[in-house]
Amino acid sequence: MSIEIRISHSFPPNYSKNNQYLAQVHSIIEKFNLQIQPKDITFRSIQTFEEIEELKLLHKEWFPVEYQDHFFNNVQANKMVKSIAAIYNFVHDDEVYPLILGCLVYEYRFLDHDLAQFSFSDLCGDAYGIYILTFGVINELRSQGLGTILLNKVCDLAKSDITIKYVYLDVVAYNNPGVRCYEKNGFVKVFSKRKHYNLFGERYDALVYCWYINGGRKPRSIKELLTSCVTCCGIPSKVFSSAKNKITEI
Q1: Predicted TM-score (pTM) of this structure
Q2: Burial zone of 49 (CB within 10 Å; 0-12 exposed, 13-18 middle, 19+ buried)
Q3: Dihedral sign for Cα atoms in the order 165, 143, 145, 37
Q4: How many CB atoms lie under 10 A from the CB of residue 133?
Q5: How far apart are CA 189 and CA 15, in angstroms?
Q6: Residues pairing with 105 in the sheet
Q7: Which residues lie closer than 8 Å to 226 by C-beta, 6 or more apart?
Q8: CB atoms within 10 A of CB 106
Q9: Mind listing the pLDDT tens digit for each residue in 9-35?
Q10: Is the dihedral of CA 227, 233, 237, 239 positive or negative?
Q11: What is the C-alpha separation between 205 and 197, in angstroms, rounded?
């Protein structure tokens, strides 16, 4: 099946080849004219070899980055790398065919103080973040809230574990629909990574977005740190104003 519009906004705007469906789910939805209701969708991890093979095809549709077999092997193992998939169990001729409608793949990582404020309580125990490796929803169900549900699922995991201080991800700077989705769901931009992605011979910035929980907070800027020093140390306002202006000029 081919379409005239772009399948994914993760691909560069001037890239013209992101216009062909590869995964089986699309042809089944079209052939049987499926009208999928939210109540009929279940959420679980990716489990079978067949589901992994379908997920590989969806990743080719969704992302300009190529993911190797070891990535998908880790997803299926469900140990270091975990998944939350939106599944519709399509029944045909008494056989059940699990259709992947969307999927979020994530892993736990050690706390990064470029992403969260330092806390002395972190020295007394373990603290982690959840990194969203990949996240996508099929075109047929976009703008219907499925992406928000998947994000809420991983954020609920973070809420339930006090050692998790944030959930974060990278998004390519030109992906405006993705940015709107994350901001709508409470993620805040922390910083940019200049020319982070090398896609089809061009370099693109990445934006790092975080959702904070369990006492995790966005790192303070240099200006905020200076303001704190003024308050705590009684630095003369003239000195503070001069330093702040210099920072602004950089």
Answers
A1: 0.86
A2: exposed
A3: negative
A4: 17
A5: 26
A6: 83, 134
A7: 240, 243, 244, 247
A8: 22
A9: 999 999 999 999 999 999 999 999 999
A10: negative
A11: 6
